[in-house]
Amino acid sequence: RHDTCHEDGVWSVAWTSAGKLVSGSVDETVKVWDGDLKAEGAPMGGHRLGVISAVPNSTGQWCACSSIDNTIRLWDLESRQLTRTIDAGPLEAWSLALSSNDAMVATGTHYGAVNVWGVETGDKMQALKSPQTKDQFVMSVDVSPDAAKYRVAAGTSAGTVTVYDLETG
After folding, report:
1. 102: left (phi over 0), alpha (psi -120 to 50) or beta
2. pTM, whole model, 2 decimals?
């Protein structure tokens, strides 16, 4: 099945653990769908310049979204209410990933770093940098699922993949 679900390009889709689909679009909205692409509730707006990543948490109750306006927004997927906005600053948040315990959000930057943000506080906990990726656009990030030894992988526009240990930086 396919359907036109947004008014512009869809840059992110992700399944929740409850079997729902979350989509983020250049049309500046995040939407929740059932498995047959039937919309469930109103779209979540407020993003400017397009949604890059929309990633549900481990329980499927909320999602973290990044947008071209340099913000990270946390949405309650049931109520469609915005629960937190993190102003990441210019070039500080492109793609994002959540830790398996839902406590951290990792974001790629336009200049080769990976930022790690606390979900509860909205504070930047770490800025991970490597001399090998300086000035490379971090286009994708992921956080390892092993909570005992969290690592972040980052993929850049120059073809580089870097793995950071969060404990040692």
Report:
1. left
2. 0.90
Residues 6+ apart with CB under 8 A from 131: none
Q: What percent of the chain has pLDDT over 70?
A: 98
Its sign, for the CA torsion 43, 45, 48, 54, is negative
pLDDT at 1: 58
Average pLDDT, the chain: 90
Q: Indicate the domain borders of the chain.
A: 10-165
**In the prediction, which pLDDT does 43 show?**
87
- The residue type of 62 is W
| 53 contacts 65 by C-beta, under 8 angstroms | yes
Q: Hey, what CATH topology would domain 10-165 get? A: Methylamine Dehydrogenase; Chain H (2.130.10)
Angle (nearest 5°) at CA 88 between 160 and 57: 80
